[in-house]
Specification:
mainly alpha, globular
């Protein structure tokens, strides 16, 4: 059995097991839902962390996603994939959480005095980083996080789901509440912006590796 065939069979086995756990939960076995949480919480956390950029928000997204999944389990279609379904719930809530955090940060930010420029010493990015520094994975990751933070919520979501989580365009379109063409354009736009942001600092190959788009 080759690796691809084994992976497909494993995915089918998980989907069948998930469907059984959903059925048991709906029948009144509340403990059956724990199987779903234990099986998918790590993947949902990874998605949430990459979207929100911090552990606290990611943990909140995971908790809320599974709570909403439990509350709406009656709406779950038996033919659907539970992992994909809870992914969509998590991604949608992560977008809402990022928007809420943005508003909270804006309210906390003190008003800037007119005519006062930002202190260059407060800038996170170095104006002229050395090549040696750029080769450090920690520095590269920091630059990547900054580039991701500069994307719109939709662009960040599309990029993370497509290139880091391997989701299909149709799944991304559902989360973004758009059509496939628009979702594809959003992914493309996000990749172009990230490439442009990282281009002055790293070579093409390292840039692709950092973005997770290396072929």
């Amino acid at each position: 059995m080759n690796r691809m065939q084994q992976s497909i069979e494993n995915a089918q086995a998980i989907a069948t097991s998930d469907a059984l756990a959903v059925e048991r939960t709906l029948a009144g076995e509340r403990d059956a839902f724990r199987v779903l949480v234990e099986r998918h919480s790590q993947n949902v956390f990874r998605l949430a962390y990459r979207m929100t950029g911090n552990r606290q928000d990611a943990e909140e997204v995971v908790q809320e996603a599974f709570l909403r999944a439990y509350q709406k389990l009656g709406q779950f279609e038996a033919r659907a994939n539970f992992g994909t379904w809870v992914y969509r719930i998590a991604a949608n809530y992560a977008i809402d959480r990022m928007r809420q955090r943005q508003k909270e940060d804006a309210r906390r930010e003190p008003p800037r005095a007119e005519g006062v420029e930002d202190d260059p010493m407060n800038r996170v990015a170095d104006d002229a980083p050395t090549p040696e520094r750029l080769t450090q994975s920690l520095e590269l990751r920091k630059q990547m996080e900054q580039a991701l933070a500069a994307l719109s919520h939709a662009e960040r979501t599309a990029f993370v789901m497509r290139h880091w989580e391997g989701c299909g365009i149709e799944e991304i379109a559902v989360v973004l509440k758009s059509n496939s063409g628009a979702a594809k354009n959003t992914v493309f736009r996000a990749v172009q912006k990230l490439r442009l942001a990282l281009e002055p600092m790293v070579g093409t190959k390292i840039q692709a590796r950092a973005m997770g788009t290396e072929s």
